[in-house]
Amino acid sequence: MSIEAASSTPLRVALVEDDAAFQEAFRTALAATPDLVMVGVAATVAEARAMLAEPPADVLVVDLGLPDGSGIEVIGEANARWPGCAIMVATTFADERHVIASIEAGASGYLLKDSPLPTIAQDIRVLHGGGSPISPRIARQVLMRFRPDEKPAEEAETVDKSGVPSLSEREKETLQLITRGFSFEEIAELMGVSRNTVLTFVRRIYAKLEVRSKTEAVFEARAYGLL
Fold this sequence. Notes:
This protein is α/β, with parallel strands linked by helices. The chain is built from twelve helices and seven strands.
């Protein structure tokens, strides 16, 4: 294949995102760029795993908060199964734990969803070309990580105001059983309460840890030293 032909081949882009509005906006942004083509969309971790069994994309864009788990799982598996694919996060999570975990799992870019979506096509090109598109807020956090005498204002504010989330004994018990892989029904039986009561504990845990799934709850709890 000639260099001219190779350069005219569109980059294959896949998206893991459960928000329908973001999916549509992403499609629209790419539709206006002849050098990029959507080859797959997954809305859950399970769907993403099925997509990873298909021929690899050139670029994978992943949200972290998915209905059945964390996008960090998807990043790790994509890094192993699609080794030539460049991976970028697009999420609302701006805390250092998610950023570092994503990078360690294999992401090379990290964009917040408050970034202008019309620039996503250029961000994808930069990522595929070996660059690392990253939102300014995230870049500052990463830089401050290597300067122990300073902390980002947002991080300092979070520590001062909230510190380690406070879970009740029953919430801790629920979280420990979740970590061991029990279903909500099994947890209810083990704790001697109704399933609705367990779901109430789970909602409180998710709210306090600011997560949306069991996987993220376990990840955050371990990061805080609660497990």
